[in-house]
Amino acid sequence: MAKHEKFSYGVSPGKGKNYVQLSHDAGVEASAIREILSVTQGRPEIISLAGGLPDSGMFESEKFLSILSDLTHGKCLDHKGRKIEAGDLYQYAPSEGVPFFFETLNAWINKTEDFGTLENENLLVISAAQQGLDLFAKAFIDPCREASVIVGAPTYVAELNVLGGRSGNLEIIGIPLDEKGMQVEQIWDLPKEKLAKCKYIYAVPTFDNPAGTELSEKRRKELIDISNEFGIPIIEDEPYACLRYEGKKLHSIMHYDDIGCTVRLQTFSKMAAPGLRLGYMAGSKELVSRIRVMLQSSTLCASSLNQYMLAEFMRRGWLEQYWAKVIPVYRERMNAMLGAMDEHLTPYGSWVKPKGGLFVWLTLNEINGDALFREAIKKNVAIVGGSSFFPPNSDKKLHNSARLNFSKSNPAELRTAIERLGAACAALDKK
Amino acid sequence: MAKHEKFSYGVSPGKGKNYVQLSHDAGVEASAIREILSVTQGRPEIISLAGGLPDSGMFESEKFLSILSDLTHGKCLDHKGRKIEAGDLYQYAPSEGVPFFFETLNAWINKTEDFGTLENENLLVISAAQQGLDLFAKAFIDPCREASVIVGAPTYVAELNVLGGRSGNLEIIGIPLDEKGMQVEQIWDLPKEKLAKCKYIYAVPTFDNPAGTELSEKRRKELIDISNEFGIPIIEDEPYACLRYEGKKLHSIMHYDDIGCTVRLQTFSKMAAPGLRLGYMAGSKELVSRIRVMLQSSTLCASSLNQYMLAEFMRRGWLEQYWAKVIPVYRERMNAMLGAMDEHLTPYGSWVKPKGGLFVWLTLNEINGDALFREAIKKNVAIVGGSSFFPPNSDKKLHNSARLNFSKSNPAELRTAIERLGAACAALDKK
């Protein structure tokens, strides 16, 4: 409606008195991936390897419905053995989490994870890991001072968006990855002034997005040494660790942490369902308590309904059953894609076979990833060019890369998609 | 666990190399209300008038369950007449909202509200109004510059928390309320330098929390004049407008807005259920588009499951049915409390009878609200002292006040609670 459009928010200072200055935080760039996804919308002929979504067809919708039915009809008991009242599902939650979910989660972490016994004050329920990334940046990066943050190069695009929105005085330091993940040993050699202003190190140790790599045990330990030496906290973000298709589970970074410098972020988006918007943050009591207060100002609390449903889902052991269902399916898809890549992409680049997760990272010999995206769309396949995953001012040669997702398409579609991508590479290679 | 506690986050600079400076944003104070609520936990003998929650017993849990059943079994059609797939409920949502919810919401607003036809670009789904308050502050207040924001005195405590966390350079200007709401005409007389750095005016026009007042039509129009004159945007936050117990609905501030200076925030916490964590922001396309990008970094999106369930709830007309159910119950409670106040509190203070909402604001003649809170707890009734609702540096005389909630207790309990509060006032009056 036109009447809402005459008031200018910070775009044209010449417009006179109806001019309002937006804060620099409002300048955050929309994710390139979002724009890429919009190109593919309403074009069913395009096979998309551009997303990063779990397969909707495999969510446990019947199980969640049966849980809501039992919760609504007083058939579920909470952690203290008391009947859960239907009305509680729809009420406000405490900022730290609904007690039933909070206690179920804490018990599950203590049983399942390798970072020892968490006390209640070490744990916070968040509206999925993204909220943790946002609040952590808010807690640690004073936008009015010089600061730096260390991330992988490449790294998770939404963490780059968080950092990009935080401050004009922030340097994002990208540490290159190899087949064993972030080359953390390079951090020792960073200039002292960059380390002195470094607020934290962001790591996705297991089946990195976008690189698909797993950080080696040696490097996990070394991250702790670096953190201890320079007094820099570590965010350990583990969205994909539950999706392991081969190899033995490694210890978490937090497992090696004796001083409490690690903060664990865990979303349930891949462990259960992204639509629930739930995750947790674990760390020192002091930090968790401060972030809880910030969360209260940010969203008050996560959805009670979703917390009750997920708690009961976990209590019934259905989380692990869900993983057991999706893992073979995703493994087959990954292998189908990797086989097709051997056949069609070998002349144009190289890749590390992932042991889990949702992505294969393609390093191209000569072709720019964004150019490949545009050529691939003409051939009805969508990918994400590598440039989206690197901090600003990265070496442009690194943009000869692309992220390929295999979780949304069946093996036949994936083979077709990779064949088309090979044709797109061939077309560019001739130019 | 002790191992997480040795790493110090910004508290004791003397601790050597494991010292990390937290940003000033991390210094946000926990809400005093939270602390008050913790005093009352596990003490069933206390009747609490301290909260602000809808009555859990009245949420439409059976209706929500029937909706989830229909959604899961393919019995619901979206806005384009297509069958909704169960898997979509659990998938990521677009940042602006699940299309089915977004379109249902937009159509509902256009039919129900008085601010004209919204186009899609004017609308954004948020994780309840709190997220809107947080993102709006982030968009408008540059923490590295001088700024001011105008709020009511008293005003919503969680907006004060948002502003308190935003910046050390922010002046919060409180404009006193009378029985017709914020005395907006006083804004004209503010010093020019305060107006020049003013980023927005925050208003809860209908059944204010905590004051219970309704902003008069004259003042709504005057806010638009002020906004136009000084180029200051207005947030119109309307959590309680659906809970009207008497009187005719007034036009929204946005209705009088011809230049697009108003941003509407609307939570569904009182309109349907707080546990869903859903609301919307409506405003100019430019602003909404920027806030959408910030929302993406903050939480990615609101819960898909909850958006589908609420959309179908709205589509079936159950929102209005819910209001029709709760309004007579809350009206009866309010009247019971007001009757008891006439009987027991007349010597100690005065109050404006609200026409809706969840609160009565008690202005005390001589008694400090926090002192009354402490005395009242001894007599097994909990209230919130007025000091929580005023910006820092407000006139301490204003803290002779308290917020009384009537939505969680039945009439008999409310009469007992007010009788006890009268006894607490009497005890303090004698001192």
Spatial separation of the terminal alpha carbons of chain A = 47 Å
Low-confidence stretches of chain A: 11-18
The average pLDDT value of chain A, as a whole number, equals: 92
Global structural class of chain A: alpha/beta
- Please tell me how large the radius of gyration of chain A is: 23 Å
Residues in helices of chain A, as a percent range = 25-40%
Strand order of the largest sheet of chain A: 2-9-8-7-6-3-4-5
| Residue share in β-strands of chain A | 5-15%
**What's the β-strand tally of chain A?**
14
**Number of contiguous helices of chain A:** 12
Question: CATH-wise, what's the superfamily of the largest domain in chain A?
Answer: Type I PLP-dependent aspartate aminotransferase-like (Major domain)
**What's the CATH architecture name of the largest domain in chain A?**
3-Layer(aba) Sandwich
- Shape descriptor of chain A reads globular
Which chains share the greatest interface? A-B, 110 and 110 residues
Oligomer: homodimer
CATH third-level topology of the largest domain in chain A: Aspartate Aminotransferase, domain 2
Q: What pattern of helices and strands is seen along the backbone of chain A?
A: HEHHEHEHEEHEHEEEHHHEEHEEEH
Question: What summary fits the major beta sheet of chain A?
Answer: 8 strands, mixed
Number of domains of chain A: 2
